[in-house]
Amino acid sequence: RLARLARQLRQILPRQLRQQLPRQLKLRQRLQLRRQRRQQRLRQPPLQQPQVTSAPCPTGYVRTSSGACVNLLIDFNNCGSIGYVCSSTYTSCSNGACSGAPAVQLVGGVTISGWGGSTSVDDAYVLLNPIPFSITLYGYTTSSASVQSNGCVCLAGCSSAYSNTALPSSSFSGATAFGYWDDLYIYSGTSQSVYYGTTGTYPNRNLVFEFYTAHFSQPTLYYHFQIVFYEASPNIVRYLYYQASDGGTSATIGVQSTGSGPSMTYSVNAASVPAGSSTTSTATLTLTFNTGTGTYTSSG
Length: 300
Known about the structure:
Region (Disordered): 35-57
Radius of gyration: 35 Å
Number of helices: 2
Largest sheet: 9 strands, antiparallel
């Protein structure tokens, strides 16, 4: 019957219309297929947009609305709270309050963990492993270093010794930079600490250790100096001094390879460093030791 009906339709319908029917059927099929695909897309869950997150700020820092990490304890423009700027009558932000104490020079530096703030530090050293790049003294290269609270940075064989001596010193068995070896002290309730960080860009970065301390049992004697290592210049270490209240009369300044030498000495128990002040913003003395050649220079 169906075949007969089809033959009858072919006889009745014009030839042009018979040719259009398959095309219309194909068009309807395409439209139906598009609707089905559209419905499938609507039923699918929306694509999750990737979340953009910022790297966490270092310990002791908070993030501002602009995304910058600031230290509310020492940031002159964010002293105690974000956006609070100390007036020009002050020289620094110390422990979250505007102060006349020396200002930290290193921008973006972080403190040695546990040193400063609510904790006093006396005769201690901390191993930093790893440090941002390897450093070298007297041909000895290391990717870690110990920071000693009494004004030294040890590449190996560190000590908490506070009583300074002439160099070489058997108290320190490895390569050591004696920026200002004295009986220094970090008082709680201040921003005193040892800050460290890098400046510059690879392969010409500088690793800076900034000491901001006082003297044991003499909290009004300030010591503010930097010990700097250079990525592009191994075997060289530089000391920059901003304030040394007693000028070095009880300190040893120099560098040594081992406890038995070789070593270089700038001064021992001598007033050889300008006293400086809390307002000093440029180094009053710069010492550069080249342990590769066994020579040093001074300027300032």
